[in-house]
Amino acid sequence: MIQKFRWKFIGASVAALLIVLLITLGSLVGITRIQNQNEVNRVLTALVKNEGHLSPHNAQPAFGNQDDLINRNFLAGKYNPEAVYQYRYFAVTIDANHQVKVINNNNVYKIKNTEIADITRRTLAEHNKQGNIKAGQNQYAYRVTKDSAGQTLIVFLNETLIYNRFWLMFRVAVVLGIGALIVFALVLILVSRRAIKPIIDTYHKQQEFITNAGHELKTPLAVISANTEMEEMLGNDSEWNQSTKEQVDKLTKLVNRLISLARAGEMGELTLSKVNFSKIVEQSTQDFKSIMKKNDLTYQVSIREGLNVIAEKHSLAEIINILLDNARKYCDPHGRIRVELSKSPLSKNAVLRISNTYKEGKNKNYTHFFERFYREDESHNSKKGGFGIGLAMARELVQAFRGKISVGYKGEDIVFTVSLKIVK
Length: 424
Description:
Blueprint: H1 2-49, H2 56-59, E1 89-94, E2 100-104, H3 113-126, E3 130-135, E4 138-146, E5 152-158, H4 159-195, H5 197-233, H6 239-264, E6 273-276, H7 277-287, H8 289-294, E7 298-303, E8 308-311, H9 313-330, E9 336-343, E10 349-357, H10 390-400, E11 404-410, E12 413-421
Parallel strand pairs: 7-9
Antiparallel strand pairs: 1-2, 1-5, 3-4, 4-5, 6-8, 9-10, 10-12, 11-12
Helix pairs in contact: 1-4, 5-6, 6-10, 7-9, 9-10
């Protein structure tokens, strides 16, 4: 259980860091993307206004009044006239005869006029005022408008080069994020044992105390039980002796459950192996047959043969006994108890269902049933016996077997379900 807690602590910490990294690095990458898109739009606007030509003087108006804090692009910084020389673009016009005329191709590398004409025709075929088109290894953003002579003007801007900053930021963010997670996880694994050492020590002391106290309590209980039996043998059999015997028996069961619960928390105490689940269920249900009959309960058992699981034989029997005793305890008078062991049709699991009729259980809160010392009647004056540790122990044992246990209400029945993986 301590190891589970440790790994959950590590997992939660790494998950928290992952969320922080996703927010921070994701925001940086997203801001870079938006900034690049705004840059493409500004440059295209400058090219359109200047009919396909760009210079430090004619580009400045398209970038806004940089001395005005409202218009100034805070993220991009102040306009630098030299920046216009980094952009790669070309521009064409289309005359009345649909002839393509290249008006500026000085700022692109090794693109022939025939290629430009082909790109232009593909652009016109899209019938869009603006968009993107592929040309070789580069992606060009384009905008269609009219020039001062009334001819169709199309400007093309190489946005691949602009977005290279975005992809660089993205790759750096991924590498840094993964690296940070790995380093953080390794450091956490190394220091987590020391960090939770006080919890481990406290837990072990608690388990040791329960075990030692349980063994110490057994001796006086055995003496009280022997004295009571001696009183009966001497002819002093009274209701007080009978009550003492019942309380001794009750305390003995409580001590045994506490010791078992303490041991169940220590994974090393259990040696798991292949066991016949069907056979164990059959033996346990047979043991309860006379008890069910004595309580005038309808007892229905259905067991599929040959189901083997990985567990510890005696602990698995203890789980079944706890659930059967719980079913007997809370079953309605003259009610019905069902035990069904089957193979799940959707998975390779053996599924044990133990249910009992309980008409008052419709509006009960079943979320706390497996908590230690949980009792629905907080005053502990319930007529039902028990100490609130049986189901907690059943859950810890099932988890030790790497299985699942759950409880629910269906129809008029409380249904406990145990699922364990089948092995051949």
